[in-house]
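User
Class, as today's exercise, I want you to study this protein, comparing sequence with structure tokens, and judge whether sequence predicts the tokens.
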Amino acid sequence: MKLRNCFLPGILLLPAIAFAKGNVSGLVVNKENGSPMDFVNVQIFDSKTGKPLQIVAVTDEKGQFTLPNVPDGSYVVKITNVGSIDQERAVKVAGADIKLGKINLADDTKVLQEVVVEGIKSQVRFELDKKVFSVDANIASAGQSASELLESIPSVEVDQDGEVSLRGDSSVTIWINGKESGLTADNRAQILEQIPGETIDRIEVITNPSAKYSPEGTSGIINIILKKDRRGGYFGSADITGNTRGGGNVAFNINYNSSKWDTYVGLGFRMRHNVGGSEMRRKFTDGTFTNSDSRSPNHGNNIFLRAGATYHLTDNDDFYVNAFGMFGHRWGHSDTHFTSNVPDMWTSNFERSVNRGDMRGAHAEWGYTHKWSDTQQIDAMVAYNFWGGPSWNSYSEEQSFADPSLDDIEYREQSMRLHSNTWEAKVDYNQQLTSWLKLEAGFNGNYSHENSPNTSWTGTSPLDMTLAENLYNHFIYTNNISALYFTLGGKVKDFSFSAGLRGEAWQVRAKSLDYWTSREDAGTFKSNKFALFPSVYLSYSLPHDNEVQLNYTRRIRRPWGGQLNSFLDTSDPTNYSYGNEALEPQYSNAFELNYLKSFTWHMISVSAYVKTSDNNMSRISYLNPYDGIIYSTTVNVANSVNSGVEIVSKNSFLHGKLDFTTTVNLYNNHIGAWSYTGLAYNPNPQIFEEKKTYNLSRGSQNSFAWDARIMANVKLPWGLSFQATGRYSSEHKEAMGTHQGGWTVDAGLRKVAGDWSFSLNARDIFDSRKFKSSTITDDYVQTNKRWRGGRTISLTIKYSFGNMKPKKTARPDSEPMEMDYNGGEEG
């Protein structure tokens, strides 16, 4: 009986023993300075046969990796990285997890001198809450701006005006180094145009940010991380770029690191020239029309400077300061020819607008980090941002009528001085509570103020113009946001989780002053709000290197300053626009289910997502009953449901000599039926005393759309690398029309020769990068086509130098801090 009682449980345990598995994890750091190393390749091999298993990983930004579900047996773990001496570790898995601890990679100085800057890393890394794209993997980054570089990121689109959207949604937040850095919807297009692509290390796309991050932007966050290297010694690079449009870049970067100091300085000059244009066709229901054709040469120069230093006071205390600034000048003009057969309107109107302006901006931050232990630390930071500068525009119109006696010439000048400053404050605390549970908590504050006077003069020429009192505007805007957050996360065997809550209180104060109203007498728009933003992340590692992730977040889209300013913009004589003080925030709830599968040379990620949005902020246009001109503004109308599937695959052939990264995004946008009655803008209250309204409505509509991107990388003989990228996007519907599709193809070739590299890039090879849209109302149908730049070929020459040396005092080894439960697996 006793024998049977012992034998039966043993039989039942045999399957568990036969299929026992364990996770192999570790931390990879630079041997010279102890800093974590990301994008390091980790692979496991059978110790007897030497064959690789279908299990691979790439270290995350904290240097951590996990090889999941390794069957029992004896293996060799190989850790490889361009510019480092490879490391191997023998492991024996016997039904339990293996922790390799800290693995030190020493710099291979001979290799570093050849590829310290040019080594191609894995292009993408997947984590629990974000996708991380390495800029080094993109040959096109040479000579490009940040906005041009964003176009190569899957599911990101940059339009003709430099505005960025993610998964077809323009409500996206853009950060620099994990902070807002003063970027707003008003200025970010100009700022991104001035940041050189060579200064960017990686780009993080966070479609469902956790409670730790700002909830601003219903489609998520794009975080641009600038380069900062901690290898010992001095090293840097210098490069020069020229293109077929007469533009170019010159840049110089240098780092110097010792046992106590990490420092870097970078300086770049960028000169750009491009020619854009537009085409508008508007047809009214009575058969009349208004058309326009425009050509717009634009130019700009700017200097981009960045610098920073970290002082290691002790092994547990760091003080740091980082700053960057840009100083630019732009100029250009636009020639637009209007034609119309609308009664009582000109039949032809030639407008020339001339513009020039300066962009001056700076970001500076000071911070302190303290570690009580490897499982408990705090980071405090305060930052100041300034963006602004003067701008000047002139508009000259030559109007021709059917009756020549009515022919007219109008001239207007406009001068505006933008002044926007922001203070940011952050305190982030994290502690490992138990072996499987971690706490993160903190405070975020963002306090911004804008002061922008706008003055106009009118006449028939610069010689007789007088002050246009009715066009004067002085906009004063303050937005203060304070937030507290906490998250609890951990990992139990193959299950990872994180849940958090963020509370935000914000106060908006806005004044739009006309010429006759003083600051004291003007009414103030006031809004005080509070909201909670929860987040949940769940992840489970399945057998055979499969992983499933489920997450939920609540997001917000707040109106920005320009959308609240009631000032009337008349720069387009066929379409006036103004802001709406009564605009309310738009809230959304986002759900996402992710599946990842890795092989030795292949990887696939499938993300299914659903986002519901209420009280949508939508751009609308109406025919003004006062003067018969089209007016545009932003109002809260309709609810929407956006759902889709995003598929990302990486496939490597010929032992890594040929790589394909493919992204396909299939989505459906449902916009609910809506009806809106608004008060028409009164262009002259002294003449028009009666209040008039306009009515707009739409039935519910569904729009299926898709976009695709494929990037091919080929490693050729003689140190050559070739890269080609193709993109396509289909038409999708909006509240009052459609955004039509388009396609582009870019290609690049890179040659590495010792300390030198040469990159030849062709952007928009087929000159197809154009943006098309349509607007449909009860009174008219309008189509628009806009473009900027076009086919451009550029050549970049880069020289890398350095004297990498071990730091005098290596920081002591310690077990890795269990802070990241993302796994960081990638094929």
Observations:
- Residues 1-19, 109-121, 804-827 have pLDDT under 50 and may be disordered.
- The longest strand covers residues 408-434.
- The chain is about 5% helix and 65% strand.
- Residues 22 and 97 are 4 Å apart (CA to CA).
